[in-house]
Amino acid sequence: MTGNKAAATAVKLARVEVLSAFPVTPQTTITQYLSEFAANGEIKGEFVNAEGELSTQVIVQAASRAGARTFVCTSGPGQLYMHHPMHSTSSSRLPVVMATVHRGNKSMQPDHTDLMSQTWTGWIQLYCENNQEILDTHLMAYKIAEDKRVRLPVAIGYDGYVLSYTAEPVEVPSQKSVDDWLPPYEYQSILPKDYDPATGGRGFGGGGRDPQQGWITHHEALLNALPVIKEINEDFGKVFGRKYGNGLTETYKTEGAEAVMVAMGSLAGTARAAIDNLQADGKPIGLIKLKCYQPFAVEDFKEYGKKFKAIGMIDRNVCLGHGGAGYRLIRNSLYDMDERPKVLQFHAGLAGKEVRVGDFERVGEKILKAAKGDKVSQVEWV
Amino acid sequence: MVVGIRIHGRGGQGAVTASRLLATAAYYDGKFSQAIPMYGTERRGAPVTAYVRVDDVRVRERELVHTPEIVMVLDPLLSTRQTMADDMAEGGLLLLNAAYPPEEVKTGGNIRVATVNATNIALETLRRPITNTAILGAFAKAVGWPKLESIEKAIRKQFSGRIADMNVEAIKRSYDECSEVIPAPVKIAGESEAIAVGGYGVLKDVSSWRVFQPVIDMDKCTGCKNCWIYCPETAIKWTDENKPEIEWRKCKGCGICVNECPVGAIEFKRVEIKNE
Ligand code: SF4
Ligand code: SF4
User: Which residue, A271, B107, B159, B239, could crosslink A263 as a Cys pair with Cβ 3.0–4.6 Å?
Assistant: First the structure.
């Protein structure tokens, strides 16, 4: 099945109660599948048509506030149009789940700039490598978002076209196994007893409190989500037989490796193929797949920083005037170490530029050169 | 070993569906597979390319198939073009929808060729020139996999009822009617000319979309102008003799004029593509 079918299937399995979406390429077919499922009764929930993405976000936000399990999906420009209410969804700590089928901000083709430009809205962001992972991640996302220790919206990013329209085998778990693992969303008031109203909502301080409290609580909530994401990934693995590294990052063939490349989304698949070829040639390089981009797994990277002499981050994005998003976070994570590895920056696949296995073989060779102490350029557009 | 397949068609012939059916059938055969569509601005008649990878292990790379072992062409006009064989692997197989035997194929190179008249099969089984399933049976015959049962299973998953039955009949017929696979009679790749597939204004040329073309019997025609009004492509001119005249580059062969003529003066005739 295609990536979009995998997402729609997961939403159906999760027994979502309120869905809203506005069609935008390359997300369109999720909207089609979901409206079909809703029309023929396969989904009992309400599919709400809206006139634009801003409304879809407001609709699911309101439904989530009222206690419904919700889903919304979009791409590229739709994502940008939705930006404003995304803040209030996350500030209100509502467990909305959203699929972002990547379409970059400068073309119809995929890169991660659409979802990454939402970083400051404070949603959890999980990225997917293949269609199986899309299905599985949606199921996990509900469990993470609704966990009482988290209570944050989750965005699931996967590359448009490359995954959204590519068909490949996907194992679909039975409805019963999903029902057993993911019980119905238990309604809670958005202001539970242990939740200080002054810190919820829009983050306005009240009653003489620090007006910054809303930001502090939201930030801490994201950091506190890290162990829960790990735990839910582990549990998913036990029940369904598939898991994704430790839920935050995954290592691939890193044993004995002197250096690693780091990739996100569908580029991780291409990187795996490149690593196989490089290792077959006796080149000691492995892969780290970055699945959870927000919150960022600082501790994981501190460990990797101790193990490897060079790390090459492949960003399918650029924060203009700053650099790659992943690259900056990795370097930041390593700053306090006494002995730091080399960290190189690669930008690849922006605006849907095709990335071939051979491209990543070259990337790998360059990272290995840096590991040996050879001088190489710091930043490269693949 | 991974096998890369490239599928060429024109919008409306079902190239993307063909890629998915093929990938699904290969999966039922116990293989791993991947079907990649290449979307442009989707429009009837515009060339469409889709790719399939079949492997014994899960496919991880996401790039397009750059040196296909197999190329399958759903459109009889595209089938006459040398570009179809571009970048094919040495000794690869080129399967064409064509009304002529492989001995007459002019596409050159160090490749093997086979033909099947998929348009005829589609017209006879589906009553529409949608050639995707009508060529998949031939694929199974020429390539040796996937199993015909696997393609049938994939079709029944995608379609239901009568539509599924008709498509299953199409694959069976195309399996039986596929030619032998022979080394390409022309060894050296020839020049390739582009085909007109759309365009706007004076550049517009949709003539290559036609599977049927309208032929007007001027003796029967009463000059009522119905065809002139209804033609969606404004392909019908009005002459000084108060009669319709078709501008062939604008006529896409939709048959609306045939349907609208109140006196049955327009006949719809099959245009079969020759390899000249
Ligand atoms: S077949 Fe269609 S396009 Fe051609 S003349 Fe008739 S109505 Fe016009
Ligand atoms: S619709 Fe028929 S009768 Fe009328 S002008 Fe056209 S061809 Fe002649």
Answer: A271
